[in-house]
Amino acid sequence: MTGTVYAAIASREPPVASQGVPAWIRRNLFDGWANSLATLVTLALLLWLVPPLFGWSVLHAVAAPDNAACRAAHETGACWGVIAEKGRLILFGRYPFEEQWRPLAACALLIALLVASCLRPFWKPWLAPLWVVVLAICFVFMRGGLFGLTPVETSRWGGFPLTLALSVVSLVVAFPLAILVALGRSSNLPAIRAVCVLYVELIRGVPLISVLFMASFMFPLFMPQGTTIDVLLRVLVGMTLFAAAYLAEVVRGGLQALPKGQVEAAQSLGLTYWQTQRKIVLPQALRLVVPAIVNSFISTFKDTSLVTIVSLYDLTGALQLALGDADWRKFFLEGQLFVAAVYFVFCFALSRYSRWVEAYLNTGMRRQ
After folding, report:
1. What single string gives the DSSP state of each residue in 23-81?
2. Using 50, 70 and 90 to split pLDDT, how confident is the model at 368?
3. Are the C-beta atoms of 248 and 201 separated by less than 8 Å?
4. 80 — phi, psi (to 5°)?
5. 138 and 189 share one domain
6. What single-letter DSSP state applies at residue 157?
7. Helix axes 159-185 and 231-257, enclosed angle (nearest 10)
């Protein structure tokens, strides 16, 4: 019987680390020749762009509200002094200077409520009444006329408070309306379905600027003589109807993506139509379209800049007012960058929050 011969196995390379910074860089930046080439090109562009941009925005910039210094450094550095000089006009528009603590307090309340509404421990039945109370308090702060506050016409509201109020209020009202319209479009009743289809197609067939123009200038022509409706209310209604039409199509997409067996199972249990929608259909449908819903929220927040066509000066409109000063007009780029940074902070926060909500709601559906 022949004896067994054992041969030594050659040593192998140790396993490549899959965790840590080097592994992340290798996996995301240098995974293949195409990815590596794109990374090197991007690095080269950054090395070419970042140093002069840093010098313009930081090293040679003028932060003090000194117009002479800004003009002297106009070719080499940014003039952030325009923000220091015109910041309150940009943020609060034509609101009376001595009363600007009121829109500041209203914005703080509204942002605090938004943050609280995004946190899971606050998802309670009392959250909806709290919204009504806080919105009423914010309106009293802005409008005045009560508790010794000086009345301020809505035509003088502007800047960031107006942008925040228009976007938040229109979305809060538009979201439940969009759910009802989406359910109406999926209804088996022809009359309800026809009305919802007509509304959605009519609103989505025109740009928002046309809706605002109609709400501001054309709608008063159909009112009885002597009847006036505040322009801010008209714009708010127009934006709400516009946002609701787009959100309704997003929600309808979620309803159509839901398997029909879910509804049939609910019917077999004896649930009514509204019980089925509230407990079975809508929770699953809305979870499927979270990214699209947040995308509509972001679009509505940015679309508030169009209200300048009806003489309401939101954040971008207030910037144009601030740059009407001939001494600071040439520093429009710095002002635009400041406004863009404000929009970016809020839109980026919404985007990150949508990713968290999507991951939280899809915990049981995630692939292992």
Report:
1. HHHHHHTSSSHHHHHHHHHHHHHHHHHHHHHHIIIIIT-B-SS-HHHHHHTTTTS-BTH
2. very low
3. no
4. -80, -5
5. no
6. -
7. 40
Based on the structure, what is the number of domains in the chain? 2
- How do residues 147-167 score in pLDDT, each as one tens digit? 888 999 888 898 999 999 999
* Residue 281: count of CB within 10 angstroms of its CB: 20
Collapse the DSSP code of 187 into the 3-class scheme (helix H, G, I; strand E, B; otherwise coil) and give the result: coil
> Measured between alpha carbons, how far is 351 from 291 in angstroms, rounded to an integer?
8
Residue 77 lies in a domain: no
Spatial distance between the Cα atoms of 247 and 171, rounded to a whole number of angstroms: 9
* Domain around 137: 96-151
Ramachandran angles phi, psi of 313, nearest 5°: -100, 90
If one counts every other C-beta atom within 10 angstroms of the C-beta of residue 295, the result is 16
> What are the Cα distances from residue 59, in Å, to 43, 73, 84, 335?
22, 11, 18, 18
Same domain, 216 and 244: yes
- Segment 348-352 long-range contacts (CB within 8 Å, at least 24 positions apart): 350/294, 350/297, 350/298, 350/301, 351/294, 351/298
Q: pTM of the predicted model, to two decimals? A: 0.83
In a domain, 359, yes or no: yes
Closest CA to 141 of 152, 130, 155, 127: 152
